[in-house]
Amino acid sequence: MPQTKETKKKSTSGAKKTKASESKKMEETPLHEFFLDGLKDMYYAENALVEALKKMEKEATSKELKKAFKDHRSQTEKHYSTLEKVFKSLGEEPEEKKCKAMDGLIKEAEEIIKDTDAGTMTRDAALIIAAQKVEHYEIASYGGLAQLAKTMEHTKAKELLGQILEEEKQTDMLLTEIAENAINNEAEEEE
Ligand SMILES: [Fe+2]
Ligand SMILES: [Fe+2]
Relative to the alpha carbon of 171, which ligand is closest? Predict the structure, then answer.
């Protein structure tokens, strides 16, 4: 049957492909290049975020949110150096690559500061959402990168990226708690 032939043909070419990629160095594969690009993107993003969080801390109203931004900034600095370890584990030099998404998210936070009044809980409520958008971008990125590291058997990189991922998730939850426990209700009372 022609169908069987085709299936046979496919599996033969598939086997050939595997052989060819095995003879290639892992570092030369398009997937590895994409993985490295993703790391460079986050290396840039974490660095840009350190500066943005300084401003967000300064402009936030409540003590609680100021502290959360301050803590998040030191966590972000830590992520930046953890990424250096990831590069090192792969035998690569750390390198930043402009991350348009993070630049955009930071711009959005700056616009919130411009568009809300200083000293209001409305500003805090809006800044929390801006910060959570950043966290979700980081969660998506590190989740995907950790998964790729696992697939490509970069054990150390997988472990380090997984650690960062967990911290991003915790920060996101903390921001939700701060919003729910005080800020959103107080913001609602403002006129
Ligand atoms: Fe981070
Ligand atoms: Fe973060």
Answer: 2
Annotated domain spans of the chain: 43-189
CATH hierarchy code of domain 43-189 = 1.20.1260.10
Distance 69 CA to ligand 2 centre (A): 10
Instruction: Look up the pTM and report it.
Output: 0.85
Which ligand has the minimum distance to the alpha carbon of residue 79?
A: 1
Give me ligand 2 centre to Cα 33, in Å: 24
Q: What's the 1 CA to ligand 1 centre distance in angstroms?
A: 55
pLDDT digits (tens, 9 = 90+) for 69-114: 999 999 999 999 999 999 999 999 999 999 999 999 999 999 999 9
Write out the DSSP string of the chain. Answer: -HHHHHHHHHHHHHHHHHHHHHHS-GGGSHHHHHHHHHHHHHHHHHHHHHHHHHHHHHH--SHHHHHHHHHHHHHHHHHHHHHHHHHHHTT--------HHHHHHHHHHHHHHHHS-TT-HHHHHHHHHHHHHHHHHHHHHHHHHHHHHHHTT-HHHHHHHHHHHHHHHHHHHHHHHHIIIIIHHHHHH--
